[in-house]
Amino acid sequence: MNSGIKYSEQELVALLQQRSESAFSYLYDNYSGALAGVINAIIPDTETMRDVLQEVFVNIWKKIELYDASKGRLFTWMMNVARNAAIDKIRSRGYQESKKNLSVDNGGQEMAIGGVSLPQTKDIGLQRMLAGLKEEYRTLIELSYFQGYTHEEISKALGIPLGTVKTRIRSALSNLRTMIR
User: Fold this and answer.
1) Is the pTM for the entire model greater than 0.85?
2) Is the CB of residue 53 less than 8 Å from the CB of residue 36?
3) Distance between CA 40 and CA 113 in Å, rounded?
4) Helix, strand or coil for residue 116?
């Protein structure tokens, strides 16, 4: 961290536009934590969050000329860059494909929010309840809720009409609700 150096927002923007590496280091040291928090709220996977954070700082470096002080503060602009990058990432095909390739067990083990681990599906008996469903229902629930497929994707993958997929998922959820009570 840059010890003792402080920049006003105008100075920092001017130095960044002049491609000052020390100003960029200052920016990273002082704002990376906050931007990581914004990204982490959207992308809970730490590794992916760090990749997006790096992309955000590269974009800030490349596009600092687009910052307009009359429209808001530098921090607000950077937060919007970070938020938009995180949203773009989770909407990207590569991210969606990587989430589909996780097994149900693997997906349950990696779930954590704010450093607190969430219960795994086996811990709350959900796998046992799913085992009590008809095979056709269980497959649809696993694809939809644990692997992140949309109803349309399930319909195409299994060769089942979209209406049938929706009806079976609704019935499966109804059966699960009955089992929980």
Assistant:
1) no
2) yes
3) 9
4) strand
